[in-house]
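The data are quoted verbatim for reference:
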Amino acid sequence: MAQYAVLIYERVPPEELPKEIMDRHLGLPELIASKGGKVTAGLALQPNETATAIRGDLVTDGPFVETKEVLAGVYLLEARDLDHALACAKLTPVVDGGVEVRPLIDFQVVPD
């Protein structure tokens, strides 16, 4: 199956996410599996204040872009095609934000 990165953007800091939303995140892999997709990895990001940006020789605190939404997490999804990936990604719980789906290119840099 094709692989996709699902980027989760939120305006609510991770430590302030309602328990209902956190519980839905924990159940998301099983819900996506019931739709024929597969979550192969998932990561939540530390708050924006912990980011360090590198641009050429300049190293600064914070992310590249100032926005009201922050990249809160990412998970890897296997799906039949983009339509299937979008249907699975729509199941992602968010409080005040959204998700972005990006097809991945498998470079196989680590031998099996």
Residues 19-34 form the longest helix (16 residues). Residues 40 and 93 are 18 Å apart (CA to CA).
